[in-house]
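Work Package 4 report. The design task specified in the project plan requires that, given a folded chain encoded as structure tokens, an amino acid be chosen for each position. We show below one input record used in the internal validation round.
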């Protein structure tokens, strides 16, 4: 959610409701300012009222990388949006051409990008497994089409497509 806090619109990244033993309850929240991009931890009393700001989410497709920025397009209207690398963050490791993501806007400004739970990527280079080296769950490094390297089982070869969990960044299965 997004809130109006101290005259600035902030996105709530994390929140926890706490009730310490003999004290009053409070909410500990991590907020990111849309204007400055800085994150901060804020403590609210449980009775404090906050003004929420509407958020709009759209399904968009990754088109290409323009210098530092990432360009996404709306598949219905073909509108393009340039998003800076700070907002894309770790998601850039899993973005391929035409990959569908959920983009969240607050007041026509992009605040977050959400990847699907898993993506399918092609293995570009991987060492050959050594014959007879089949102990339990032996893994080797493999470089993927987006440039990241992760651990995969020995039977995966260059040119194969694999499914990766975007939340943990780990190999799931062959695709």
């Amino acid at each position: 959610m997004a809130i109006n806090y101290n005259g600035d619109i902030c996105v709530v990244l994390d929140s926890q409701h706490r009730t310490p033993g003999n004290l009053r309850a409070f909410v500990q929240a991590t907020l990111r300012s849309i204007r400055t991009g800085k994150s901060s931890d804020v403590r609210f009393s449980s009775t404090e009222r906050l003004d929420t700001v509407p958020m709009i989410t759209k399904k968009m497709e990754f088109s290409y990388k323009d210098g530092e920025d990432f360009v996404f397009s709306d598949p219905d209207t073909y509108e393009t949006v340039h998003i800076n690398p700070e907002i894309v963050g770790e998601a850039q490791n899993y973005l391929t051409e035409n990959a569908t993501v959920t983009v969240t806007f607050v007041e026509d400004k992009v605040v977050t990008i959400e990847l699907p739970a898993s993506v399918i990527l092609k293995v570009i280079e991987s060492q050959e497994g050594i014959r007879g080296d089949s102990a339990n769950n032996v893994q080797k490094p493999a470089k993927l089409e987006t440039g990241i390297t992760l651990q995969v089982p020995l039977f995966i070869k260059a040119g194969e497509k694999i499914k990766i969990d975007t939340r943990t960044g780990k190999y799931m299965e062959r695709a």
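Residues 56-114 form a domain with the OB fold (Dihydrolipoamide Acetyltransferase, E2P) fold (CATH 2.40.50.140). Validation will be extended to a larger panel in the next phase.
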